Amino acid sequence: MSKKHSTTFEEIKTLALADPVAREAYDRADEEWKLRELLLSARETANLTQTELARRLEVAPSNVHRIENSPLNTNMKTILKYLNACNVKFEIRLSA
Fold it and tell me: How many CB atoms lie under 10 A from the CB of residue 12?
């Protein structure tokens, strides 16, 4: 019979994120996840497949896949082209 643990995921997460290095990595991953979600949502709202979007951008479908999977490694000009091809207008808002 296996022993049940009484430590919750939230408790483990809190302990792990107390480490500044882990917190920084977590925050970076969260930023990338939000950007990835924005891109996927834009493409889905435009009702485009990766192949259709690639055609609009005049790139290989693998490039669209790369942009969506690693948006922080993609330059801003490319992200703007991607959103434009999805007929999406967006605002940039800064917060502290």
Answer: 11
Report pTM. Answer: 0.73
Can you tell me which residue has the tokens 């792990």?
16
pLDDT of res. 12: 87
Please tell me the distance from the alpha carbon of residue 21 to that of residue 29, in angstroms, as a whole number.
12
Say what the pLDDT of residue 53 is. Answer: 98
As to burial, measured by CB atoms within 10 angstroms (0-12 exposed, 13-18 middle, 19+ buried), residue 38 is middle
Query: Computed from CA positions of residues 14, 15, 21, 22, in that sequence, does the dihedral angle turn out positive or negative?
Result: negative
> CB under 8 Å to 32, separation ≥6 — which residues?
70, 71, 72
pLDDT digits (tens, 9 = 90+) for 23-82: 887 778 788 899 999 999 999 999 999 999 999 999 999 999 999 999 999 999 999 999
Q: How far is CA 10 from CA 7, 13, 16, 17, 47, in A?
A: 8, 5, 10, 10, 37
